[in-house]
């Protein structure tokens, strides 16, 4: 290269560096602290991978003011980390109209099934869909689905006890995952897939494929995220091609339901909202609103949503809870006693009984405190917003995140935070927990829509499992290793010894 070319290159690099420095002065010029960052990337190298993210959030929270708020950069885009419960309440709840969106996922036209799921919708479309779907998760509707989930929980317990006869140690993470899968197949797709007993079940194989990340699928996702239009033109999609299998399955079940075979599951409930809209033909307004949102394709997307949002989350929540109960035999016995007393009162594991079980609820809440499935929450600012109590304004497009994992272990809110102490969540102690210091199901109007369903599922399984067996830690498995994936985490393994409590 000639001297002039070198000089030109030097000037270009210098200008780019100066531009990056200027962009990265957004927070310092407003007097907001930021953890150390690097040119161009900002903090992206620390926040893009969940494995690094939770440790980074902790550092930002304790050392750079994040327990109130601090500034971050994703490339050159300013982001805000907010760890103050009062400020979170103001932003995520009271000023929700300014924070109803989430960071958009870049998708192609071939990703319609997942782009129509509630979790990826924004603005008015999200509002309408959420309003129509919310009643399907009411406590009345949960009662209707209770027997379906109990059936799957009974299958799980029988399977585990059968395994316990031949195996010294049971892989409970695997069994909880299969149980969750069977429940989703039953409640969202009307399918009895029995993946617990049948390792070759088509449904479970397809779900495994749906989540499997290979080098090729990762590169495809990265390419779609960078150039969605070109990717679309090349017939590429972000989601796994296996999505087509679930779409066909749900469409087939919808057709069968129209022939009259109802089961009171989630799919029936969604179809009911569609016909409620149609029945309202007289007034016209509601009918067209429902029809517009819940066409068959939109319903199919919400069935797939159950796999996306409900599979790993519930299986991990059950795995962590079972591990903690096995590690704390006295707590386990206290919980078993509560369940036995409720059975004496109600005659069986009933919806009413598990709702009354205060210690059961406390054990699950404490387990989700120590291991919140979402390490952080995010919202996107939709217009200029002045951070309350300051004269700092953040522009539209700023991503605001809440460091859930870190806040769940802050000794300011949780004395001896690393200890498993369900008593913290008993009614007489609940008043000591500040509002929004505990948020395993998120915050405000965009929180987990299926919280009732997820809790019902978890409570039924733990009740039935503890009534049937004593859970003990397998030798060498005294600690749980958290395995961080792309967007979520799960215990690496939960291997337990199951000691049956009744003669079979
Ligand atoms: C123990 C299990 C579960 C946990 C811990 C959990 C947790 C969460 C969290 C933390 C969020 C984000 C909330 C926020 O940003 O404020 C969320 C959102 C969501 N969850 Fe769950 N979840 C669980 C099970 C499920 C299940 C079984 C479904 C089934 C459909 C589900 C569906 C959703 C949906 C649709 C959203 C997005 C809601 C919206 O954007 O309006 N979740 N969940």
Secondary-structure-derived class: alpha+beta
Small molecules in complex: protoporphyrin IX containing FE
CATH domain topology = Cytochrome p450
| Measured distance between first and last alpha carbons | 83 Å
Q: What fraction strand?
A: 5-15%
Give me the number of helical elements: 21
What is the overall shape?
Answer: globular
**Oligomeric state of shown chains:** single chain
- Please state how the strands of the largest beta sheet are arranged side by side: 1-2-7-4
Integer-rounded radius of gyration: 25 Å
Mean pLDDT over all positions? 92
How many β-strands, per DSSP? 11
* CATH superfamily heading: Cytochrome P450
Largest sheet: 4 strands, mixed
Model regions low in confidence, pLDDT < 50 over at least 5 residues: 280-291
Number of domains: 1
The level-1 CATH class: Mainly Alpha
Share in helix: 40-55%
In the CATH hierarchy, what is the architecture at level 2? Orthogonal Bundle
